[in-house]
From TrEMBL:
Gene3D superfamilies: Cytosolic phospholipase A2 catalytic domain. One of its GO terms (biological process) is lipid catabolic process. The lineage of its organism: Bacteria, Pseudomonadati, Pseudomonadota, Gammaproteobacteria, Vibrionales. This is Patatin. Pfam families: Patatin. Residues 10-225 form the PNPLA domain. The active site is at 48 (nucleophile), 210 (proton acceptor). Keywords: Hydrolase, Lipid degradation, Lipid metabolism. It comes from Photobacterium jeanii.
Length: 374
């Protein structure tokens, strides 16, 4: 790749099953390149489900369309049972184990809590990801770096585990740090462990949860790895209708607001900060920017044109019966705000609808995206 070509970062935010939308966007972009063309992105940053997508694409940085096709193939064949134990025996046995473990004496180590057992996801990631390809892509110069962000329950810091070129340095900033690592399934499981829904995952001697929890600066990993441009595919929930403020908010509504806040609000604040910085830098001369080692970083922020909730409500019936029963027990039903459901609805019809939505949204901005990726 040309040395003077700008380094473009792909930033994928978290959102559980909503991340199928990102697959649709990437599918549209991949069709604009020849079959054996390298990826337009050299830096990949992901959080939660976005981390899983980023890693899968990064493994095929030398052949972008092949990587996207494989990712679409995986998502197109997902079922809830491939993500978490959804059978009656599996769910009851797991919840019983959780209850029994907490009845034991304090000196017994208790497993991390989660309503759903995501061990099938670990098995799936081990099957579909060839992590050894990452180092090969780095050595070939196709990959500048891959960053996976998780939240440490011990230090309460946002930790970005990155694998990339040797010139990349670790960093320590307020509430966040970057640490070099060989990315594997443990990092993806940690980054995608949605609080209360999935159990925390251990890396070394520390438990980690969803990377969005403590992530105050989502753009930082991209900037630290030298990005000149950043394409952000966010999964913020579009509220197209006004909520009924006369009704008492239930658990589903409160949980939905909490999820949307965790996955979206910090990114919005960080983007505002980047825009202010860019505006200030444009008032300086090129020599002044070089002297201060600062540069203008362009960005495009893509988010869904439609709300995920109506789609989730239409496909709620496809959730496994035991999962629906568990959700009803904690106060979630199709009549409630479907925000929580939209995160765990790993069913083919729902996923297919989100992929199509992402594909159409990307095509609607084809000219803008093509110019940005040059």
């Amino acid at each position: 790749m040309a040395k003077d070509k700008p380094k473009i970062s792909l930033l994928l935010s978290g959102g559980g099953a909503r991340a199928a939308y990102q697959v649709g966007v990437l599918k549209a972009i991949s069709e604009w390149y020849p079959r054996v063309h390298h990826s337009p992105f050299t830096i990949y940053c992901g959080t939660s489900a976005g981390a899983i997508n980023a890693t899968s694409i990064a493994c095929y940085a030398s052949c972008f369309r092949l990587g996207v096709k494989k990712l679409e193939w995986i998502w197109g064949r997902l079922h809830s049972r491939r993500i978490f134990h959804s059978s009656p025996a599996g769910m009851l046995g797991y919840l019983g184990h959780q209850w029994f473990a907490r009845m034991q004496a304090d000196h017994h180590e208790r497993p991390p809590f989660g309503l759903l057992n995501n061990r099938p996801l670990r098995l799936l990631l081990n099957q579909v990801n060839n992590y050894s390809r990452l180092e090969k892509q780095i050595m070939a110069g196709n990959l500048q770096g891959l960053s996976i962000t998780a939240s440490s329950y011990k230090s309460r810091l946002s930790v970005s585990f990155f694998q990339g070129q040797s010139r990349l340095n670790e960093w320590d900033r307020a509430k966040s740090k970057g640490r070099r690592a060989m990315i594997n399934t443990d990092h993806l499981m940690a980054s995608s462990a949605i609080p209360l829904v999935f159990p925390a995952s251990r890396i070394g001697r520390t438990y980690y949860g969803d990377g969005s929890i403590h992530q105050l600066a989502p753009l930082r990993p991209s900037l630290k790895m030298g990005a000149d441009k950043i394409l952000i595919i966010n999964l913020i929930n579009q509220q197209l209708t006004s909520p009924d403020h006369t009704q008492t908010p239930g658990l589903a509504t409160l949980g939905g607001h909490l999820m949307d806040t965790i996955f979206s609000d910090t990114l919005t604040a960080d983007l505002e900060h980047l825009e202010r910085t860019n505006k200030l830098l444009k008032t300086l001369s090129h020599a002044q920017r070089q002297q201060n080692r600062m540069k203008v970083v362009e960005h495009i922020h893509l988010s869904p044109s439609q709300s995920f909730e109506p789609i989730a409500q239409e496909n709620y019936c496809y959730l496994p019966p035991m999962t629906r029963a568990l959700m009803r027990m904690i106060g979630i039903s199709p009549r409630d705000d479907a925000a929580i459901t939209s995160y765990i609805l790993f069913e083919p019809s729902y996923i297919k609808a989100l992929i199509q939505l992402g594909y159409e949204d990307a095509l609607s901005q084809e000219v803008t995206l093509r110019n940005f990726l040059k």
